[in-house]
Amino acid sequence: MNRRAVISIIAGVVVVFTAAWALTVGLERVMRPRSDGEASAAPTAQPPRPAAPERHITATIFYASPDAQRLVPVKREVPFGEGPIEQGRQIVNAQLTMPAPASTIGVVPQGAVLRSFYVTEKGDAFVDLGPEIAAGHPGGSAAELLTVYAIVNAVAVNLPAVQRVQILIDGKEADTLAGHVDLRRPLRRNDAIIGDDSKR
Amino acid sequence: VRGAEGTQEKDITLAVARRLKAAVEARLGIRVVMTREDDRGVPMNERTALANNNKADLFISVHANASVAASVSGAQVFYLALDPEMEEAVRAAEAESLTLPVLGGGSRLIEVVRWDMAQARHLSASEALGRILEETLRTRIPLGPRPIQQAPLRVLVGANMPAALIEMGYLTNESDARKIADSDFQTAVAQAIYEAVVRFRPQIEGTQ
After folding, report:
1. Residue A57: in which H helix or E strand, if any?
2. What backbone torsions phi and psi does residue A64 show, to the nearest 5 degrees?
3. Please, what is the end-to-end C-alpha distance for chain B in angstroms?
4. B80 and B157 in contact (C-beta within 8 Å)?
5. Which one, A12, B6, B144, B186, has the greatest CB density within 10 A?
6. CA-only gyration radius of chain A, Å
7. Chains A, B: CB contacts under 8 A, how many?
């Protein structure tokens, strides 16, 4: 066998192996499922979906008038809650935490928290607040009336299923928040404390 | 309530009550029972129980106010507001008067009064007392923007007699806090309450 014949045989073997490798790898790439990385890199991949927007309702939240004699109703966007109990939680949380808009004054001490919220079949809502609301309250009949009725009105005005609202402190029935307003029974919404005399 | 300069509601109210007691007892010869004579807390039920057990003719609760707005000033008078359900419950309870046998035969009608809502039957008299207090206070000290109000105040609920609560000014207001700490102001408040007692007295005697 001459030298030329040997080179031809080697070249033929190389061609056969190269063809076999190309066929094997190519088929594997066609058959293998694509990984996430490959999919996102592909020019035909779908763009990521945006997160579903959080649903909101417009609720009435109460703050003090500049002279602190009345409650001012303010429309605020509050997260949607499924059913009166979850919606009630969202409304009370908004009343406790949303800062007062310009020309009004907040009536709930900072740091007040909602422990739980429930509604009975009779339409009595129970708002169970942490002890912070009592500890941080300045006291006085005037300030206490605004705080109590901001919470009572926020629940009773926004939830048609609720007729009366009782505030509990730290899971228990309380005499008062800071020595004045009777909290031992559920309270009805108080429309007389809303607005100002000039608009009546 | 505590004022910015350390004035405390409990001290001021005791000082005013002592002046009032001295004036009423000395000038009218009427006995005054204080819910406390020193620096101690008295539970709400004990305050009205003391008045009820002593068969008091009037219950006057003296306070100093607080506001979320430092600009608010002036005195305020409160009388009790009751929900319709409570008024209904009181009527139902009153309808359940008891007839008990007495020694020697016969029977006696015992009036049933629920002490947790005894004030319900005195609401109109309490409103009259409140309006007189508003008038007498107005002649001696500045009144606030809403000088008389009806509210569900805990301390008034159990009083089985005409009752009112006086907030003599705002300790959260710098000017009011200074005034309230002044002995002339305290005398003026006591004098105004004394004058209200004098004016309301015929109504008490008319019902006895």
Report:
1. strand A56-64
2. -85, 145
3. 38
4. yes
5. B144
6. 34
7. 87
**Are residues A93 and A127 in contact, defined by beta-carbon separation less than 8 angstroms?**
no
pLDDT in tens, B136-155: 999 999 999 999 999 999 99
Single-letter amino acid, residue A24: T
CA distance B76 to B207: 27
Query: Please, where are the H alpha helices in B63-139?
Result: 84-94, 123-138
* Residue in the structure block whose two tokens are 């409160």: B78
Answer yes or no: do A181 and B153 touch at CB < 8 A. Answer: yes
Q: Is the pLDDT of residue B61 over 60?
A: yes
Tokens found for residue A79: 């997260």
Q: Please give the structure tokens belonging to residue A161.
A: 């299923």
Instruction: Give the strand pairing for A164-169 and A187-188.
Output: antiparallel
Instruction: Looking at B2-144, list the stretches that DSSP marks H as alpha helix, in order from N- to C-terminal side.
Output: 9-28, 44-53, 84-94, 123-138
Of B9, B67, B83, the CB nearest to A68: B67
Q: Compute the distance between CA of residue B39 and CA of residue B51 in angstroms, rounded to an integer.
A: 19
List C-alpha distances in Å: A38 to B72, B76, B80. Answer: 69, 76, 75
B159 closest CA partner among B28, B61, B40:
B61
Q: In B, what residues contact A, Cβ < 8 A?
A: 1, 9, 44, 63-69, 71-72, 76, 78, 83, 86, 116, 144-146, 151-155, 157, 165, 167, 170-172
Q: In the structure encoding, which two tokens stand for residue A94, read together?
A: 């908004």
Length of chain A: 200
The CA distance from B47 to the nearest CA of chain A, in Å, is 13
Per-residue DSSP letter, B112: P
| Token representation of residue A121 | 């079949």
* CA nearest neighbour of B134 among B73, B74, B47, B206: B74
Q: In chain B, which residues have their Cβ closer than 8 Å to the Cβ of A146?
A: 68
Residues B26, A89: Cα–Cα separation, whole Å = 57
Q: d(Cα A170, Cα A114) in Å, to the nearest integer?
A: 9
ipTM, interface predicted TM-score of the complex:
0.90
Q: How far is A138 from chain B (nearest CA, A)?
A: 6
Q: Where are the alpha helices (DSSP H) in B41-182?
A: 44-53, 84-94, 123-138, 154-157, 174-180
Mean pLDDT by runs of 10 across the 200 residues of chain A is 62 54 46 40 59 88 97 97 96 98 96 97 97 95 98 98 97 96 96 69
